[in-house]
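To: structure subgroup
Subject: Chain for Friday's discussion

All,

I'm putting the inputs and outputs inline so they're searchable in the archive.
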Amino acid sequence: MSIINFQNARQAEGIAEELSHIRMKLEQRINLNKYSPRQKPLILANNKIMRICLLAGLSLSEKRDLVSVDQVQLSKTGNRIFDTLFTLHNLTLIYSAMLKLRYKDLQVDWENQALKSKIINAEILRGATYLANNNALEDYLATAGNSGARSGASAGIPFLNLNIGNYEDDI
């Protein structure tokens, strides 16, 4: 199986605005209400939000179609998706395999730069739509990285860099 070349993938028109509600929900979820004077709230980069939404989109097994992919409008200014979205943590092979799995029933020319960009953006937007619904974001965050870990197993406990302070609801 050949690996998809993710270099020079273009962003969808207005994708940053489309993902702003997910950014707000995530930042609200991970930031404290109050910080010490030396500590500032975490602000998530667009690349991180896009990566989270891409992973969420690819995790959904619903049937894909090229009609909805074709509706994605690519940036008129040629804005690119940073290559690190795919290369961080050496996940290029995983992204490539997941995209090919999700689109296996369709005739996709993975060398077609515009089509490939539209598919990637469609998956990012699919993930954003999913995470915006009900408690999907909370469920996704609670289970991300813990698949296969037994309840109570030390391998299932992620490392957390927490600040001591007040969260919402006086926690």
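Points worth raising on Friday:
The longest helix spans residues 113-132.
Helices lie at 15-18, 20-30, 46-59, 66-70, 84-87, 92-102, 113-132, 136-143.

D.
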